[in-house]
Specification:
three-stranded antiparallel beta sheet; 2 helices
Length: 84
């Protein structure tokens, strides 16, 4: 006998795989230059660090860019605050 998951469980699992990440400026707004969606936290942060180094040189201290992740309700949640 096969057991299937309820529809809501399947939707929740597939939704988690569709999370998007974005970079924000020091005011928490989408970054004016790096305004894109990324597939992972690592991809977003790598883009931020590469851009920061091109603009300001080697990272010597806090980076003025934050990272947010999309939630299941369509909101954004901060994962990394600018300058942290």
């Amino acid at each position: 006998m096969a057991i299937s998951l309820p529809q809501t469980s399947r939707l929740r699992s597939s939704s988690q795989a569709c999370r998007a990440y974005r970079l924000v400026d020091q005011q928490g707004d989408p970054h004016p230059i790096l305004d894109d969606l990324y597939d992972s936290l690592d991809a977003a942060w790598s883009e931020a660090i590469n851009w920061w180094q091109e603009e300001f040189g080697p990272v010597q201290g806090p980076v003025g860019i934050g990272v947010e992740v999309s939630t299941l309700s369509g909101e954004w949640r901060t994962l990394r605050y600018p300058d942290s």
